Amino acid sequence: MPEGLHESDVKNPVLRWVDQRLPIISMVQREYGTFPTPRNFNYFWNFGALAMISLAIMIATGVVLSMQYSANTQLAFDSVERIMRDVNYGWLLRYIHANGASMFFIVVYIHIWRNLFYGSYKTPRELLFMIGVVIFILMMATAFMGYVLPWGQMSFWGATVITNLFSAIPLVGNSIVTWLWGGFSVDNPTLNRFFSLHFLLPFVIAGVVFLHIAALHITGSNNPLGIEPKGPQDTIPFHPYYTTKDSVGIIVYLLVFALLVFFAPNLLGHPDNYIPANPLVTPAHIVPEWYFLPFYAILRAVPNKLGGVAMMGGALIVLFFLPWLDSSPVRSMRFRPLGRIAFLLFTANFFVLMWAGGKPAEQPYILIAQLATAYYFAYFLVILPFLSKFERPLPLPESISRAVLKHRGGGPLPAGATAKPMEKA
Amino acid sequence: MRPLLTTVKAAAVAAAVLLVPVIASVDARAQEHEVIHLPDTKFTFEGPFGTFDRASAQRGFQVYKEVCSACHSMRQLSYRNLSGIGLNATQIAALASQFQVQDGPNDNGEMFERPARASDRFRRPFQNDAAARAANNGALPPDLSVMIKAREGGADYVHALLVGYEDPPPGVTIAEGMHYNKYFPGHQIAMAAPLNTEGQVEFADGTKATIDQMATDVVTFLSWAAEPELEQRRAMGVRMVIFLTILGGLVYAVKRKVWANLHQDTQ
Q: Are the C-beta atoms of residues A212 and A160 closer than 8 Å to each other?
């Protein structure tokens, strides 16, 4: 073997030649083949892979759609209808793309929920989590700009409302809005740049996803018990165990996706977006897509415009500080009797915000949104920092393998195995 | 630990009690905003296996052609699309040739009129929106291509609107040139009852042209126009769900088998 080549285990001579010079096969084998993974994942650990699949589906359908779409205010609406009627399987591509956005957000919200419940954001995975929040924010920007492209009434008025938020910034606000619009209202230049950015950002997301996964493969995954693997008995190779388990999740995901696309493709959309954009007619209620509603509720909960914008931004920014706000060393909410209640209330509260965000900006919805906003922030800024002061966590299992075997009833355990004192009371 | 849990439970109960008046006032609010209940019309294209009744859609096209198209465009549709409701090429060519459309410029640089071809878009009743407004008391008759998808309530709403004209109830005043409609939000609509006389349209197949029949037919036609892919979409969906269910069973079996070995190893 000539000097300077990578040492490869690949048997096939051609692949071996490649792998010696670019050890990509070795890398995949290491990171997705033998990669030691906690053996006790439940199905909530499918959602990272599902998010990946969602991104791939969105990019694949989006690239094809962009070949038929015209980013011009005079042509956009009709070009979308042309895709629906005259392009071969254009309706399928567009409905997959439109519902794919909803599926992506459903998957990512569950992924984040899993993270918060099992404390995956805690050390040593703080940066992994923060990169994830960056992906979430990029997704929101991408989805918002994508929704503008069909140039329906909600596209236009949604774009107007959301871009106008920047005018709340003191002194430079109005200049920023004009700069974003490329003019003095949402118009053709706005549509053009949104199309450009909507095409660009998914690839930025793909790049950040790579960082997310790179960081994940340094620390390894968290697991439902929230305790680190202590040895090989606690882990299993990613393949075939989690490739098969992820495959089960992927099929269920595709089933839900198919039901939406084929039987209720407009269920999550708004009828007004089938009315061509008209700057002279404002819709009765301007509502964003469902996945923005909780944050929209926070925005409107504050009577002051700048305050509302700051709170909405803060609702996302606070996530970056979460690893340091939560003072409990116990990760999994399974072992936090009080944290669990607070978090389940937080979950219910998130749905309350989502519901309130879809209602008109009037009482009592504003009051409800204000109470829910208060709890949203209280959970991060008050409950998590101080709860551990008086919460007594349940005893943590000694190791993953012991917990798994006990769970499966695999024979008697050595005395005292589960009666170990918890790591910290 | 225990007292804390009790405290949390008490707090939850207190929160629930506090929320009751809020929820009650939500109910009171809902009554201020009038909620219009649409009657549920039975259409053949409802449900996961529904299809468009071709005869009804063809009658509906006749209603559109003889009534609606005086004011409403359907600019996303071409005559050739009518094959989707069962018209053959000869019928479509004959039908299209009834309409004069503008073409050009010709070799002399002039625009000219010619009979429409199958590939032409449905002829629009007005040259532009301003002309449409001028002819309609300032109101713009909306394009009907995707109307069914563009209204809350879809087919049920459009059907209800078409049969929902009646005299205004006592105490309700209607602005000049406006009309009372039970199902239109705000109840004042610029469009006069388009389907107003039994037998307004004479159906070739002998179907009695009651107002409800004409409304049902034209809504069937408009539903097809808004979602011409609907039947293909659902048929594909059924195959997809069956395929994914079988594949899901196999994948789950494989997963169980792979994991069964693991459980044996560790026990």
A: no
